[in-house]
């Protein structure tokens, strides 16, 4: 299913399980079903290939910043709302607001064959602003409590410039241990530029 949001200059397409995606009055909503997740444990082999989570993704061109305020209906450990980057089946990354395992936390996962997992900072309440940016072969993750001052979270790459230039970007919902959760994304913004400075809060 294709979805077009007025805030984004590229169409989105659904991937994985049905996320029951909807959009109304500037709010995108999606739902993760029971035990849906996207993670390849570094301690062992890949999860069952059927293991997946709902995704809504599109392909922006050139440098960009994708911004959203993410609100998660936390119910189970590791429930999360995610901004997601996909380059290949074993090359992707997540910037999450996650119940990790019982405190809302900004965390990241970068998968190159297997996934890593890193927590950044905790959040009061169930909402936070997330931002993913790209220039050339590089991606950056930022998070903000107020949508104004941004905390640098991560800088990484998932391949060469040709591969990352064709990356799919968008939204993911997950509920790895629970019975499902609802995630909303609002204050959606798209900028065709890379941040001026990754670490000055802008």
Any idea how many domains?
Answer: 1
Q: Show unreliable segments.
A: none
Biggest pleated sheet: 9 strands, antiparallel
Query: Compute the gyration radius: what is it?
Result: 15 Å
Mean pLDDT: 94
CATH class, named Mainly Beta
Structural class: mainly beta
Classify the beta-strand content into a percent band.
Answer: over 45%
Characteristics:
16 strands, 1 helix, single chain, 2% helix, UCP022704, Regulation of enolase protein 1, ConA-like_dom_sf, Jelly Rolls, 7-stranded antiparallel sheet, 9-stranded antiparallel sheet, DUF1349, 202 residues, mainly beta
Explain what the structure shows.
- The protein is an all-beta fold and about 200 residues long.
- It has a single domain, classed as Jelly Rolls (Sandwich), CATH 2.60.120.200.
- About 0% of the residues lie in helices and about 50% in strands.
- The chain has one helix and 16 strands.
- The chain has one helix at about 160-165, and strands at about 1-5, 10-15, 20-25, 25-30, 55-60, 65-70, 80-90, 90-100, 105-110, 115, 120, 125-135, 140-145, 150-155, 170-175, 180-190.
- The strands form two sheets. Strands 1, 2, 5, 7, 8, 9, 10, 11 and 15 form a nine-stranded antiparallel beta sheet that branches. A seven-stranded antiparallel beta sheet has the order 3-4-16-6-12-13-14, with no helix packed on it.
- Strand 8 (about 90-100) and strand 9 form a beta hairpin.
- About 35% of the residues are buried.
